[in-house]
Write a structure and sequence with these properties.
Helix content is 37%, strand content 22%. By secondary structure, the protein is α/β, with parallel strands linked by helices. It has a single domain, classed as Spore Coat Polysaccharide Biosynthesis Protein SpsA, Chain A (Alpha-Beta Complex), CATH 3.90.550. Helix 2 links the parallel strand 2 and strand 3.
Length: 260
Amino acid sequence: MLSIAVIIANRNNSRFLPQCLDSVLAQTLRPAEVVVIDDGSTDNSREIIREYACKWNIRPIFNQISLGVSASRQKAIEHSESDYLTTLDADDFYQSSQKLAEEARVVAESPGVRRIAFSDVVCVDARGEPLSLVSSRRRIREGDLSFFIRHLSGFIPRDYLVARKDYLAAGGFNPALRLYEDWDLKIRLSQRCTWHYSGVVGTAYRNNPLGLSRAPRREHIRTLRKIFAEHCPSTHPMSRALDLTRFFIYQSIYLRRLAI
């Protein structure tokens, strides 16, 4: 049986936090660790985290000052010990109680092979009501996804299950990034691991008006282009120009879907 740590980063999401934590605790494959890091919340998040920690095997970490989501996740992972990791935002929740069990099954199918397991995602509104499956709009692929992830093409896995050793070998989250730190990490992970679909709906991704889309559009574009340029494999000027042009097209489609 895989030992799994669920890493939950929170900042001022007290209204969503109980649903998030309840969905993790309801998993048929209970995680070995649930690490909840609060990044300097000013609402009553800390009281909720302490209440759950008193009843369940939850490890709370409280940042005295805000470090940002990337640095917070990295800090929480450093405080965990399990062989496998998965992250979850505090305003999201697990739609299926089989999420961890099915992803663990997929990883265990080929022991010793660098595999990352992921599930489908359902978009929900602020109340948690389903809106649509991400797979209904974006094609799910498996195997070597380095090109597709780098170009933001098709279904981009989120809240996936990855071996700690592969996470560390890829360099972990970049704390210098304020946006798209997860995409940057997935690009690096895809250079060493293959991706495999669990067949279930895993995370319910909440359309939170205080989430990613609140940053200015120009900051999204600047960060996306910076990350892509850092990971663009083409060195020949013509090939690099073609790669960048192709990416700009995919980037425009991606931002339009996010309504940014």
